[in-house]
């Protein structure tokens, strides 16, 4: 990790630790205020707890032109991006995507779409619905490895991260606490519950929180729709295409609408936000990921509407190209943030529960001495 970035984050964390004005803002500050000295692992953990809501920056009395020149969201965003790059496997791909994410995503989508059209042209088709454009066997042969690769890559990345932050043995209670935070996106509401200042410094808003929730729950519904289709195909021998009131479409259509709406909303918020309160070098990679997810959602919805028309093969190639790009780039895009964020919350739950167990013990010892 860059020595300059980690030293600057350490300097700012030490000032924040002395001030403590932002103690109730999010998960970062209780964890920060528990430390006296900040190791590289401490700062990596704090960086991945941070959601860059920016409330602390706009409330801070030590930002420029003060001589302390604090910009903690930016410092943590830069450490966070470097932590993803350093822990990712293979790391060079992550560095490349963060710098040129939009161009890489667009090139991959178009390249894979042309590949699917070429496969269709050489005769790999047969069946009903989408399988008339590309055979089921061809889809499985391409997407099975593409689905397994990001899982393996993320597993290696998260293991490296867990070792860096000093993670301990995980219990069910740690997962329960972490998933509760993720489900509510509680840190994006800030400590006061009015939301964050991502769009404008003087206005609290829940917009970013709701956009994140639309993306997360929309993606989960789409994944559930794909899983339902897989079960219907292999377990019940019911093959696509499925009717409007089938489980894959009852899950997939609202999921696609939520995902499209959420990603478009996030892109709008990101364009309006002040870039100097984040990691400017990662802006292209983050925007590339958001737009990629939007293309996945919109092309999937278009297939629902136009799946029986002459443009179906072209739309299918575009959609499958976007989905394949999403799978292959997941370990190196902002999608990885969700996994690192969950790991950071699990680690923070360990800290909170360990502290909760220590305080009563100290109280008992003090009572016994008195």
UniProtKB/TrEMBL annotation:
The chain crosses the membrane at residues 103-123, 129-152, 214-236, 242-267, 288-306, 312-332. SUPFAM superfamilies: 4Fe-4S ferredoxins, Respiratory nitrate reductase 1 gamma chain. This is Tricarballylate utilization 4Fe-4S protein TcuB. InterPro entries: Citrate_utilization_prot_B, NarG-like_sf. Keywords: Membrane, Transmembrane, Transmembrane helix. The keyword Repressor does not apply. It comes from Meridianimarinicoccus marinus.
């Amino acid at each position: 990790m860059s020595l300059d970035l980690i030293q600057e984050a350490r300097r700012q964390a030490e000032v924040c630790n002395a001030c403590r004005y932002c103690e109730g803002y999010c998960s970062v500050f209780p964890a920060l205020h528990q430390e006296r000295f900040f190791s590289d692992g401490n700062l990596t953990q704090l960086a991945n707890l941070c959601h860059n809501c920016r409330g602390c920056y706009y409330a801070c009395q030590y930002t420029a032109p003060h001589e302390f020149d604090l910009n903690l969201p930016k410092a943590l965003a830069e450490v966070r991006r470097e932590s993803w790059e350093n822990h990712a496997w293979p790391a060079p791909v992550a560095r490349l995507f963060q710098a040129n994410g939009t161009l890489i995503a667009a090139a991959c989508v178009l390249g894979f779409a042309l590949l699917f059209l070429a496969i269709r042209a050489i005769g790999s088709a047969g069946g009903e619905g989408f399988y008339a454009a590309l055979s089921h066997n061809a889809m499985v042969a391409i997407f099975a490895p593409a689905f397994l690769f990001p899982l393996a890559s993320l597993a290696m990345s998260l293991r490296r991260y867990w070792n860096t932050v000093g993670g301990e043995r995980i219990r069910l209670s740690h997962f329960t606490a972490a998933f509760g935070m993720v489900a509510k996106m509680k840190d994006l509401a800030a400590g006061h519950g009015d939301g964050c200042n991502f769009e404008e410094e003087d206005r609290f808003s829940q917009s970013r929180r709701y956009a994140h929730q639309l993306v997360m729950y929309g993606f989960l519904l789409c994944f559930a729709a794909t899983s339902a289709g897989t079960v219907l195909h292999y377990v019940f021998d019911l093959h696509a295409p499925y009717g409007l009131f089938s489980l894959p479409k009852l899950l997939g259509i609202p999921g696609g609408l939520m995902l499209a709406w959420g990603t478009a909303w996030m892109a709008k918020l990101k364009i309006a936000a002040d870039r100097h309160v984040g990691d400017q070098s990662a802006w292209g990679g983050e925007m590339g990921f958001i737009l990629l997810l939007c293309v996945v959602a919109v092309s999937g919805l278009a297939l629902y509407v136009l799946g029986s028309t002459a443009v179906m093969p072209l739309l299918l190639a575009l959609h499958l190209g976007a989905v394949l790009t999403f799978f292959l780039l997941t370990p190196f895009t902002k999608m990885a943030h969700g996994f690192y964020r969950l790991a950071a919350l699990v680690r923070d739950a360990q800290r909170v529960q360990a502290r909760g167990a220590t305080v009563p013990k100290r109280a008992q010892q003090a009572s016994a001495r008195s």
